[in-house]
Design a protein that fits this description.
It holds the Pfam family Bac_globin. InterPro entries: Globin-like_sf, Globin/Proto, Hemoglobin_trunc. One of its GO terms (molecular function) is metal ion binding. Keywords: Heme, Iron, Metal-binding, Transport. There is one protein chain. The chain is mainly alpha-helical. It contains six helices and no strands. The chain has a single domain (about 5-120), classed as Globin-like (Orthogonal Bundle). About 65% of the residues lie in helices and about 0% in strands. The longest helix has 23 residues, at about 100-120. The chain is globular, with a radius of gyration of 16 Å.
Length: about 130
């Protein structure tokens, strides 16, 4: 059985609701998300559609995540992405079956990496060499 067989619309809705309940209450993420989201029920529907499109290839999500995040670039840091991923890991492990949780975590990590590249990467910024 594929992990997508363990992921359906209902489980994604439960996951998104549980996760963003934690985000809203989080000391680091809450102050970023709460003022930015005017209509939480509508936003949760949009996020459920996003994860449905990503994990189930449903095509339900029609938004543009990069511009949505770029609007808040002055408030978002790489450390906040790490915090988001930590909460996502905790929530997926509690709400989803193990194989589905792992798949959702891997997809979220790739999405976070892409968003961070879009938000913070600059070719004109010299990169520091990493220690060997």
């Amino acid at each position: 059985m594929s992990c997508t067989a363990k992921i359906d619309e209902a489980s994604l809705e439960r996951l998104v609701d549980a996760f963003y309940s934690r985000v809203r209450a989080d000391a680091d993420l809450g102050p970023i998300f709460n003022p930015a989201i005017q209509d939480w029920p509508e936003h949760l529907e949009k996020l459920t559609a996003f994860w449905s499109s990503v994990m189930l290839t449903s095509g339900r999500y029609k938004g543009q995540p990069v511009p949505a995040h770029l609007k808040h670039k002055n408030k978002i840091t790489p450390a906040l992405f790490d915090r988001w991923l930590d909460l996502w890991k905790q929530t997926t492990e509690e709400v989803m079956e193990p194989d589905a949780a792992v798949a959702l975590q891997a997809k979220a990590a790739r999405i976070a990496e892409s968003l961070q590249l879009a938000m913070f990467f600059r070719l004109d910024r010299p990169t520091e060499p990493r220690p060997a």
